[in-house]
Every structure is written in structure tokens, then in C-alpha cells.
Amino acid sequence: MTTLKTLVPGEVSRMLVEAAADRGVTVNELRDKQIRALLVDAIGDRRVTSTSWSQAEKGLDWITRQRSGVRDSCKACGAPVQWVESVKNDKAMPIDPLPHPNGNLRLERRGRGILAHVVPKSAPRPERAYRTHFATCPSAGQMRRRGHLQLVAGRPAKAGPDGRRFPDSTVRCPADGAPVAQVLVDAGIRRHLGCGLTPEEEQLLEQMHSLHQEGSP
User: Fold this and answer.
1) Which domain of life is it from (predicted)?
2) What is the pLDDT confidence band of residue 40, given thresholds at 50, 70 and 90?
3) pLDDT band at 195, cuts 50/70/90?
4) CA of 202: how far to CAs of 193, 194, 195, 197, in Å?
5) Is the pLDDT higher at 36 or at 167?
6) 149 Cβ contact partners less than 8 Å away, ≥ 6 residues apart
7) Closest C-alpha among 125, 116, 122 to residue 95
């Protein structure tokens, strides 16, 4: 059985992993000098070497997945991500799986899916707030330019005669009964991205990503 101790042999490295996970630090942020300094102060141990940080990166990825239960990884940087649906625009979006003090997203579980509400700056910060992965991914700019957000849209919509917007598919998700985006239906996927895709649907989603990246300039 894999444990943090068997995965990360160094005691100092394990202390860094625990401190980072408790603060919602991502693997990408673990390479930042300022964040490293804060973590060293947090554990109160100066016996930190380059090996300690290398082991900590591996351990942080593992403990993030253990605490959150996520399996998905960012296609650009490899970090763990969780897919949720934005209440603001009904689109799927990746978030960092662990809560963070500076997070501005409040999550709400609905059926088998998860909705993300943006917390206004003037509102009290919820006890557990999350960040979009685009805030910490080093390839966020490249992903936006490639239209990645449009590719994984949860419910692309069209405008009706009265100006209201509605999903462009009549296929309904078996998890929550809401219409599934036409781009997903065309690929053979019959549920929202946050509603527990089958292994076959996960493979179809991977193919969508690959085809989109090949066709991007």
C-alpha cells in the first residue's frame, strides 16, 4: 500500500508536502522561491536541500489526489485538476483541487456534478474557497489562445428569438437531466464533464483534445 512515507523517504520533504497541501499550494507553485521560503518558515526546519524539493513535488502531487479524490491532470502542465461547471457561463472549467486562502470560487455539489460560484470581492470569504487552474498553470496563456476553454465547454449555447440562450443539444445527462453540449454529443459523450465520464467517454474526450491541438495554429 502506497503511503506518503513510502513515497517520500525524507522526513523534511514530507513536512514540506504536508505544509504545502494544508495551504493549497500546487506543484507548480512549489517551484516559486517565495513560496518555498514561506514553507521553510512554516515547518521550522532549515535542513532543506534540492533533493527535499524534488521529493516534495512528487509527494504533493500524490497527496493532492488523495485528499481530493481527483484523477484528471492538466494536459499542459500535468498538475492534478478537478472539472467543475461555472454558474456564470455554464461552461466546464478546471480548478486546483485543494482549497486556498486566496480562492474566489465556492463549490456546490448538484447531483453528480459540481457547480462553481464566483465569490464577489465584497462578500465574506467562504471557509473553503478554490482557484481556477488557469491562475496557477504556467501554460494558461497558451491554452487560452488555443481555445481550450471553448473545446471543453459544458453547455455551448445559441441565442433564441427572444434573446435568451439555451443549450444546442436535446441529449440529456443521465446524472442531472440537463442538456449536454452539442460538441460533446458529436464526440459520442452523453453526459457533462463533471458528472463522472465512463472510461470510454474519457477516451473520447482525450481524442477531442488531441484533434483540437493538432488543428490549432
Assistant:
1) Bacteria
2) very high
3) low
4) 9, 11, 12, 6
5) 36
6) 91, 93, 143
7) 116
What number of CA atoms fall less than 13 Å from residue 65's CA on the CB side? 16
Q: Which residues contact 18 (CB under 8 A, 6 or more apart)?
A: 4, 63
59-91 confidence digits (pLDDT tens): 999 999 999 999 888 887 889 999 998 887 777
pTM of the model: 0.64
- The sign of the torsion formed by the CA atoms of 210, 68, 104, 13 equals negative
Predicted confidence band of residue 41 (pLDDT cuts 50, 70, 90): very high
Q: What is the pLDDT of residues 141-164, one digit of tens each?
A: 555 444 443 333 333 344 444 444
Mean pLDDT (the chain, rounded): 78
Question: Cα 58 to chain center, whole Å?
Answer: 18
Q: d(Cα 213, Cα 118) in Å, to the nearest integer?
A: 29
